[in-house]
Amino acid sequence: MVEHITESPPKIAFLGPGCSIAAAPVAETLPFWNVTQISFSLTSPDLSNKKKYPNIYRINPSETIHDPALLALTNFFKWERLFIIKHELRIFSSITESLHALLVEKKKSVDVIGFLNNPTSAIKSLKDKDARIVVLLMYENQARKIVCSAYQNGFYGSHIVWILRGWYSKKWWTVNDTQCTIEEIKKVITNVFYVDHVDYASDDAEVFGLTKSRFNEKYTELIRKKNSTIFKVNKYAPYGYDAVVMLARALNSTEESLRRMNKSLSDFTYARSDIAEVIKDNISNTDNIKGLTGVIKLDEQGDRIINVWLQQLQDYEVVDVALYCTENGSIELMPSKNFLWTDGRVPLDRRAKNDILLCISRPIFWWTTSASICGVFASFYFLWINIKQGSQRFFKMSTPPLNNLMIIGAIIAYIYVPLHGIKSCTMEVTVLNSILCKVDAFFISIAFSLVFGAIFMKTWRIYKIFTNVKLSKQLRFLTNKHLVVLVILLVIFDSIYLLIWNTVHPLQDRIEEVLVENHHAVNKVYFAHACTSPYYHQWFVGLVSYKGILMLFGMFLTWETRNVSFPGLNDSKYIGMCVYNIFIVTMVVLPVGMFTFKANVDAGYSITATSIIFCTTATLVLMFYTKIHLEKKTATTPTHPTMSVDKSVIGPTIARNAIGPSPTWKHCYP
Ligand SMILES: NCCCC(=O)O
């Protein structure tokens, strides 16, 4: 620029330069010499700033002309989630600003990722965010880097769409300046769109002696004769032609205007701002003249108004598939052209979501329900035996009232199993399910208190009998009535706890996301019904803690009385087995079932239901079947209660109390 300015004759106007990063400083400086500048290829939105660049006029449109066209393209395919990758140059930052503002105004989700030299982190970020629709704002050499990095990082496929600027050279991916081969790059650019302002008029009218087809022939011929590694067909060539035409016309009309003022263009010096103003006026007024690129219309910023092509790369050839009409915002589809997609479908802007509700399968539900029904019948049978045989020695010694409570607990536990699995399996929360949630919690909690509470009380009494010196005083509080009352107190405590829980933070049915499977084009999201409440975990831990403490204490008592062997306390061994059984099921199997439920509803429910049925049945069998068996056996061969205690194991205290049936024995086993 300085060379041109300093060399004679004085320059009235500049044509170019070709790239915004070179043109911006020129455009900022030329006004000091009163020189006008015409652009045929500068697209930076910054150059529309008339305060900063008062002397530049663009025969070509600004990049912002593509924004509404790109918006229309995304609307056409219902893409709402977009990613912009920009090269950190001023031109692309300003393009990004205007595009981002428009997309956000239209409620699109837009994520902008910038890069300077190494595109790897940008690509990794796209991959992490599962980007699908990616707009590239960069020169083509950087686009090749991006695409190569996408290949190297496996970020490509039929689900990804790239939207590029149409001013890249025709086969821009064939330039070998990356670490990828052309074939590798071609694997990435399977779904590519260009937004590209129109470069030729629709008709073949003559402009200054040349039609567009003749111009194109001459231009391509010229390029062909040149060194093909340097000279490539540039889409701005007809704009260059039109720029010269427009400038020539403007200078002609300027001369006319100046003549009326008794001035001439030949009077121009760098100090003649008056002449510069007339030139600028005449450029601004060259509206609606016909050029090779169509009718030339400039907006108030001196930028060209023109339609935009929406093009698609089909079989690695650019195809005009639709025309965006800038003035009315409509899209005109090209009748003979279709959008083509590598897998035959329009890619989605995000993984499709396929919601699947997991339900307990019918066979599993019916199997467990059948087992529970059998359990209920067995429980009633044991209840009947317990009541009927209550006066028989072995039943009587095992505390029939506690046994009754235990059987009632077992029945409730059995009923819990189908109740837990019967919840309606629809994609909506129902009132019935919420009621079942609450009932479930009451059932399992009360069942536990009745079954384990009864067993615990028995163990406790055995422990007291064999470890307490002042047995007579203590046993007054270990009568059947007292123990039954204690079990009922546990049930009351449970009920109060659950009532408060459900009043303060009611348990509700909810549909929870339990698993997400990421497939290429679709996200399978699995849901299941779950009972939950605010502060669920805190409430749950509270309930389980007190039951856990009771259970640990029960374990301790069972361990302490493990060597007691006395036919009068014939079920102590079985009580111990029940306690271990309940402990393992409650502490290990049930939590496994709860956690498995999240990954596999059927497996989770099966584990939970089976463990409850097994644990309850084992308890009933151990506590009652053995007694029935013993009762039958002793009915045929009468035996006399004897007591044997392994003194070395149970220690002196137990041994001392275990010398013989105490007079207070009757208090305990009336
Ligand atoms: N329109 C292609 C060149 C971009 C620019 O530097 O203005």
From TrEMBL:
Keyword match Transmembrane: yes
Classification via SUPFAM superfamilies: Periplasmic binding protein-like I
Pfam family, one: 7tm_3
Subcellular location: Cell membrane
Positions of the G-protein coupled receptors family 3 profile domain: 433-630
Family matches, as PANTHER family: GABA-B RECEPTOR, GAMMA-AMINOBUTYRIC ACID TYPE B RECEPTOR SUBUNIT 2
Record-given protein name: Gamma-aminobutyric acid type B receptor subunit 2
Origin organism lineage: Eukaryota, Metazoa, Cnidaria, Anthozoa, Octocorallia
